Amino acid sequence: MTDTEAPPTDAGRRKRGWLDRIEAMGNALPDPVFILLFCIGVLVAASVVADWTQWSAVNPVTGERLQAQSLLSEANVARLLVDMPKTLTSFPPLGLVLVVMIGAAVAERSGLFAALLGGGVRRLPVRFLTPAVFVIGLFSHHASDAAYVVLIPLAALVYAKAGRHPLAGIAIAYAGISGAFAGNVIPGQFDLLMLGITAPAAQLLDPGFGVNPLGNWWFTLAIGVVFTPIAWFLTDRVVEPRLGVWDGDSTAGEAEAAGLGVLGPAQKRGLRRAGLAALVVVGLFAALTLWPSFSPLVDHEAVGPRRLAPFYGALIAAFMLLFVSTGWAYGAAAGTIRSHRDLVKMMADGLKSMAPYIVLAFFAAHFVAMFSWSNMGPVLAVKGAESLKALALPLPLLLVGLLLMSSVLDLVIGSASAKWAAMAPVVVPMLMLLGVSPEMTTASYRMGDSIFNIVTPLASNFPLVLIMCQQWKPKFGVGSMIALMLPYSAAFGVAGMLLILTWVGLQLPVGPGAPAAYHLPQPAVAASAVTP
């Protein structure tokens, strides 16, 4: 069988028309910044009504009566205008992401990420080609755009050289990079971003809640373990047989990917030096944690897992130093970094690429802050929790509902952080009142947010991957792309739901020092009511 294009059928034309309508509807949505502006406008109007009706609730943690406040009050208007710079700079994800990005920019622009991805793919054994590409896709979540421009076309080339269909290589690589984006073998900047948004939402109810950068690690690692055999089966038994036998014709795709991942002596020397630099950084942080007479990353007065709270907090600096040192070591050997000025320029260019995020963070920070000033977040969370308790729904079903909600929103709103910034101030404290930890809630949201990444034309990298497919099969369209990736989305969605049900049912820890359950502290008023 040769790889030929079948004439379009009526059903195919109807499918493309339906997809076109979805694409047009999504394109009609405003930029995420204006979506947040709309949310802020709704919040202001709702706060005025809530203040006028004296809407209130009792915080079960502190015993304090929470009274909704109008955002148009004199105090809140002054706070908005006077504290505007402080509101932005105190937004937790902003500093976390920018610090890590300084290092990640060096690792990416020096060519380290591309060398790791490309060199790894070219050495893959044919027998384990599919699972290996998927696992490399999981690791590539820290490589930013390098994962798309290096791993996907290279996977297609490796599949074609192995006598397999190159579109199957694109499919499995895209599924690992984007469809399983909720899975991280090693925590990185996205974990910091999402958990950084979770922290102020949790603090609306529990002011003592702190950010744990590893708070989702066990769950995201489990996603990789569970999804890998699923993706392997789907690619080899469903996706590739449907594509047919590759006829081996030379195409633009082969020419495009031929030079990727080819490592010369300088690149190999750079990888060896990067490995030594990584060992130095890991050894440094191990010594700062384990050295008997000097362990600043251990809280000696705390008990249990909280002893390592300084270590968890230092992981942000650890990621940055790891990326800088390995990227610098690689670049110096490979010739991409010739002086310290090249290093500084890479850092600056990396922060330049974060300009759209900083703009988004400005409005997200104000939305989160204004939710806090209005007191509507915790009041709504308490009221919502009381209603859900009355329904007596099992907690796993509530988290599955959150997964489904984030999945549907992902079809039309691509920015995971923008959606979570709008949802977290209500969802996180509401589920805390029902006994679900902020980390477990975040993990459920992330699981749902990644399922449809690979089938929605509104995803930022969907057009890029479509073009890569067309280099191998010129008449490959949007409908063909969705049909190619839909089996992964469906299977990952079902597996994600089962994983959440299992996790909550067995009360497994979501990460180091991050249980799935949340136990409310005793109310302050209750403690003060006990008199001697």
Question: Could you explain the architecture of this structure?
Answer:
The protein is mainly alpha-helical. It has one domain (10-528). The protein is 69% helix and 1% strand. The protein has 23 helices and 2 strands. The chain has helices spanning 10-28, 32-52, 74-82, 84-89, 92-109, 112-122, 129-139, 146-161, 166-179, 189-203, 217-243, 252-257, 265-290, 309-334, 340-352, 355-374, 376-391, 395-410, 416-433, 438-451, 462-472, 478-506, 524-528; strands at residues 56-58, 65-67. The chain has a two-stranded antiparallel sheet with strand order 1-2. Helix 9 runs antiparallel to helix 21, helix 17 crosses helix 19 and helix 18 runs antiparallel to helix 22 (478-506). Mean pLDDT is 80; it is low at 1-16, 255-260 and 524-532.
Compile the SSE list and pairings.
Elements: H1 10-28, H2 32-52, E1 56-58, E2 65-67, H3 74-82, H4 84-89, H5 92-109, H6 112-122, H7 129-139, H8 146-161, H9 166-179, H10 189-203, H11 217-243, H12 252-257, H13 265-290, H14 309-334, H15 340-352, H16 355-374, H17 376-391, H18 395-410, H19 416-433, H20 438-451, H21 462-472, H22 478-506, H23 524-528
Antiparallel strand pairs: 1-2
Helix pairs in contact: 2-16, 5-10, 5-14, 5-15, 6-8, 7-8, 7-9, 7-11, 8-9, 9-11, 9-21, 10-19, 10-20, 11-22, 13-14, 16-19, 17-19, 18-20, 18-22, 19-20, 20-22
Quick structural summary:
With about 525 residues, this protein is mostly helical.
Contiguous runs where pLDDT drops below 50 for at least 5 residues: 1-16, 255-260, 524-532
Output mean pLDDT.
80
Number of strands: 2
Q: What is the general shape?
A: globular
Q: Tell me roughly what share of residues is in helical segments.
A: 55-70%
What is the number of helices? 23
Cα end-to-end separation:
87 Å
Radius of gyration: 25 Å
Strand order of the largest sheet: 1-2
The chain-level structural class is: mainly alpha
